[in-house]
Amino acid sequence: MSLRTVIIDDTTLRDGEQSAGVAFSIEEKIDIATRLDGLGVPEMEIGIPAMGEREREEIQTLAGLGLNARMLVWSRMREEDILECLNLGVGFADLSMPVSSQQISLKLKRDEQWALATIKACVKTAREGGLSVCVGMEDASRANIDFLLKVAEAAQSAGAERIRFADTVGVMEPFGVLETIKALRSATDLDIEMHAHDDLGLATANTMAAALGGATHLNTTVNGLGERAGNAALEEVVVGLRQLYGIETGVDLREFPELSARVETASGEPVGWRKSLVGKRVFSHEAGIHVDGLLKDLANYQGVDPAVVGRSHQFILGKHSGSSAVTSVFADLGLVLEKREAAAVLVKVRQFVVRHKRSPETVELLALHRQLAI
Ligand code: MN
């Protein structure tokens, strides 16, 4: 696999906000956009103009921040919606059209010929209005590949520069994605963007498979925020592509914890403690053999270097701790424990965890240690 780059198009501010019950204030949007830009995220999708005057004003505000990132707006493939995308200071729109027969027939009550004709007409309108265009192929994962190729052809002939392959309902798996994106890649010159959902826990895997298959652009969201089970997580995609495939995104995640926390608060959706790369406990170690191994050499139990996401290993004392962890944690607190003392503290720690269903905090540890002296 040769070293190459892909472009992250983060949609925290569009599909992320589209999660049930999530609404960002303009201050939160500005902060999130600025932080994304600061990490080097090259593209971001920032809203849906047809939603109304307020949304359009906020899009204009974000576009006026003077950030480096290229900004996109999202729109249905409808003339009147596209007109709302003009004159907002954003030069790029994703125009979304259902492409599965399920959605064309049973949602739109139309047919494929109508869809192709509408794509041509709408892309033309957008281009005449000065917009660059990505044709968003909604529900592409359940569509016929031959029809997707017709959509790509129509999109290109009307002046689009990109197609978006949306696994709208989150039902694909990586091997199928690889094959499908390869087929699209060999049939069109357009840029190809992957948009994955995590309904089966495969959004990141599918997004990475798309990159391997030749996708040039990838949709992500911070913390994997998004409708239902969420979208592909920015942090997982960036770290996974680099570590597993040597594919670079130019995104530097060392300041990511602040952005993650900001999105967590602004979305009102707590990040699970076990959420990869950002969860509170994913770099914490308690088990005696693991801590002992890490203290001897980090590589013994380190799969991902926490420093790439601005974090570090933590040793937590708990039921499965051994005495070397106790000694190490207390040494960090400035207390040198003798072997017998460490063993006695460990007994107290185990009792504490069983009683409280959590590990002791620093002050509680010190209190447990003081009890020994009594
Ligand atoms: Mn989506």
Automatic annotation (TrEMBL):
<comment type="similarity">
    <text>Belongs to the alpha-IPM synthase/homocitrate synthase family.</text>
</comment>
<dbReference type="GO" id="GO:0009399">
    <property type="term" value="P:nitrogen fixation"/>
</dbReference>
<dbReference type="InterPro" id="IPR002034">
    <property type="entry name" value="AIPM/Hcit_synth_CS"/>
</dbReference>
<dbReference type="Pfam" id="PF00682">
    <property type="entry name" value="HMGL-like"/>
</dbReference>
<comment type="function">
    <text>This protein is a Fe-Mo-cofactor biosynthetic component.</text>
</comment>
<dbReference type="InterPro" id="IPR013785">
    <property type="entry name" value="Aldolase_TIM"/>
</dbReference>
<keyword id="KW-0535">Nitrogen fixation</keyword>
<dbReference type="InterPro" id="IPR013477">
    <property type="entry name" value="NifV/FrbC"/>
</dbReference>
<protein>
    <recommendedName>
        <fullName>Homocitrate synthase</fullName>
        <ecNumber>2.3.3.14</ecNumber>
    </recommendedName>
</protein>
<dbReference type="GO" id="GO:0019752">
    <property type="term" value="P:carboxylic acid metabolic process"/>
</dbReference>
<dbReference type="Pfam" id="PF22617">
    <property type="entry name" value="HCS_D2"/>
</dbReference>
<keyword id="KW-0808">Transferase</keyword>
<feature type="domain" description="Pyruvate carboxyltransferase">
    <location>
        <begin position="6"/>
        <end position="257"/>
    </location>
</feature>
<dbReference type="InterPro" id="IPR054691">
    <property type="entry name" value="LeuA/HCS_post-cat"/>
</dbReference>
<dbReference type="GO" id="GO:0004410">
    <property type="term" value="F:homocitrate synthase activity"/>
</dbReference>
<dbReference type="InterPro" id="IPR000891">
    <property type="entry name" value="PYR_CT"/>
</dbReference>
